[in-house]
Write a structure and sequence with these properties.
alpha+beta; three-stranded antiparallel β-sheet; 3 helices; 40% helix; elongated
Length: 121
């Protein structure tokens, strides 16, 4: 039971880390729309989650997904002006260490957190 409680605590902590990372990436997008591309937001989310979870926008599958993505065809990259929703989703694979928990959940779980902010630019 003690190891099962430790697994549930680890899973909940992973969710908290993912929620904080998605919030930080979304904050960068909302606060600095003309100065930052999605790369800066991904870096902010990655730095917020380290060293507990390794998040990335570029590796496959992406663990930080920004919707809608910045328009990188112009310099500097920007987003659509107006009041639009920006959603940042982070996800990570969690592997329980307890055999009993693995029987109920499988060998691994995908934990996901999402943050949606309304832009004002």
């Amino acid at each position: 039971m003690l190891l099962g409680a430790a697994d549930l605590t680890r899973a909940f902590y992973t969710y908290i880390v993912l929620a904080n990372a998605s919030r930080e990436a979304a904050r960068v997008i909302i606060d600095y729309p003309q100065q930052y591309s999605d790369t800066a937001a991904c870096t902010a989310g990655h730095n917020e989650a380290m060293p507990f979870v390794n998040l990335s926008c570029t590796t496959s599958p992406a663990t930080i997904v920004i919707s809608p993505a910045a328009n990188t065809g112009i310099t500097p990259p920007s987003r659509l002006p107006g009041r639009n929703e920006v959603t940042v989703t982070t996800k990570a694979t969690f592997t329980p260490i307890t055999v009993l928990i693995q029987l109920f959940t499988g060998s691994s779980l995908t934990i996901q957190a999402s943050t949606t902010y309304l832009s004002w630019y």
